[in-house]
Amino acid sequence: MGRFDGRVVVISGAARGIGFGTATKFAEEGASVAIVDLDEAAASEAAAKLPVTGDAKAIGVGADVADGASVDAAIERVVSELGGIHVLVNNAGITRDNLMFKMSEDDWDLVINVHLKGAFLMTKAAQKHFTEQKYGKVVNTSSISALGNRGQVNYSSAKMGLQGFTKTLGIELGPFGINVNAVAPGFIATEMTDATAARLKMDVEEFRQLNAEANPVKRVGFPEDIAAAVLFLASDEASYITGQTLYVDGGASLSRLS
């Protein structure tokens, strides 16, 4: 038996990268999984690859997480097709990196809206079902960049905002049987970080090694490292944990927090 047999998990931004790695682990543990992505075709393609077991199902749902009507429709579709919702992972995100004096208003708004407004709208739509059943788990994807990172004033602000969002909802939703926590990844080897290497005109392996040397465990992270933390926080084993942010970064944040 898996830890998530009979559970329905919704993950935004899960067509690739950390989100897809997390969706894969939930499926392996018995959950039915809804992958929510702006590109419904990509979401459906990713869902078809999930190793669902038993009576569990996987679906791809197209939605703009920064649009309330789109989010409400997506959550209602999940409930209708999969029979409920028990876990929400707010993972959708984009980057529009630049130094502040070069950053456009659109680049600020896009990043804040996808990360922060998206988490707000997705959680608001899901909590209606969570409070009715007196059960729910929310895990938000923050980042080590929340502690500050040159050229990411929009991204860093959104990711630290998610930590405040997490703490406040831990207070508000705890009495209704809902746990809200966050995971803050360090450098994770994904398509997004590979694209950063390309933008910096660096070889991908060289870029990864440079980042590996910047943390105490001397390796980069992978989607499965984040997935392990998310699954723990979404499990009943973590029912006494809420409002917390867990840094999963090979210890890279230690020097920033000291």
What does this structure look like?
There is one protein chain. Helix content is 46%, strand content 15%. The chain is of the alpha/beta class and 258 residues long. The protein has two domains: 208 residues, Rossmann fold; 32 residues, no CATH class. Strands 3-2-1-4-5-6-7 form a seven-stranded parallel sheet, with helices on both faces. It is globular and about 45 Å long.
The appropriate CATH architecture of the largest domain is: 3-Layer(aba) Sandwich
Radius of gyration based on Cα positions: 17 Å
Biggest β-sheet strands, sense, barrel = 7 strands, parallel
Q: Which of globular, elongated, flat, extended, rod-shaped describes the shape? A: globular
Strand order of the largest sheet: 3-2-1-4-5-6-7
**What average pLDDT do the residues reach?**
96
Helix content: 40-55%
CATH class of the largest domain: Alpha Beta
Structural class: alpha/beta
Number of strands: 7
What keywords describe this structure?
7 strands; 9 helices; globular; 15% strand; alpha/beta; 258 residues; 2 domains; seven-stranded parallel beta sheet; Rossmann fold
Quick structural summary:
With 258 residues, this protein is an alpha/beta fold. 46% of the residues lie in helices and 15% in strands.
Topology:
Blueprint: E1 8-12, H1 17-28, E2 32-37, H2 40-48, E3 58-62, H3 68-82, E4 87-90, H4 105-133, E5 136-141, H5 153-173, E6 178-185, H6 191-199, H7 204-212, H8 223-233, E7 245-248, H9 254-257
Parallel strand pairs: 1-2, 1-4, 2-3, 4-5, 5-6, 6-7
Helix pairs in contact: 1-8, 3-4, 4-5
